[in-house]
Design brief:
Keywords: Membrane, Transmembrane, Transmembrane helix. This is TadE-like domain-containing protein. InterPro entries: TadE-like_dom. The chain has about 150 residues and is an alpha+beta fold. The protein has one domain. The chain is about 50% helix and about 20% strand. It contains 4 helices and 4 strands; from the N terminus they run αααβββαβ. The protein has a 4-stranded antiparallel beta sheet. A hairpin with a 2-residue loop joins β1 and β2. α1 packs antiparallel against α3.
Length: about 150
């Protein structure tokens, strides 16, 4: 004679509910992280555009002056920092992470044909740390023609 079977009705439904909750939670975390990365990237891209546009509209005597051009580049870098600060990003660009270049050279001297601004930040997240990825480098850049 065999032992009576115990009823296990609903066990599969409970296991599915537990696994599905964890899967949905992980999916939500990945989606939120992706949205957060896109927000940071969009702010960096816009800040780089604004700084490059600022430099591209400077008068010829100022941008061509080797003494004034570094000051203008510093103002463009400050525009980037202000935009990042206003957007309340988690990470601000540090020293050396904002580059203002005139024809791929430091600004000053000859008038450039184009002006480029590049901004980089390191974005870290607990989810990335959990997955072993550490931090991600996000970069925004813009190149504008010199219009004056």
């Amino acid at each position: 004679m065999s032992a009576p079977r115990r009823k296990q009705g609903g066990v599969v439904a409970i296991e599915l509910a537990i696994v599905l909750d964890l899967a949905v939670l992980l999916l939500l975390a990945v989606l939120l992280m992706g949205g957060r990365m896109m927000w940071h990237y969009t702010v960096l891209q816009r800040a780089a555009f604004d700084a490059a546009r600022y430099m591209a509209t400077m008068p010829r005597p100022e941008l061509g002056n080797p003494l004034l051009a570094p000051t203008l580049a510093a103002r463009a870098s400050q525009l980037v920092l202000d935009a990042v600060g206003e957007a309340a990003l988690d990470t601000r660009p540090g020293a050396g992470q904002i580059s203002v270049r005139c024809d791929d050279l430091p600004c000053g001297g000859a008038l450039p044909q184009r002006i480029g601004v590049t901004v980089q930040i390191q974005l870290s997240d607990p989810l990335f740390n959990l997955l072993g990825a550490g931090s991600i480098t996000l970069s925004g850049s813009s190149v504008q023609p010199y219009v004056n």
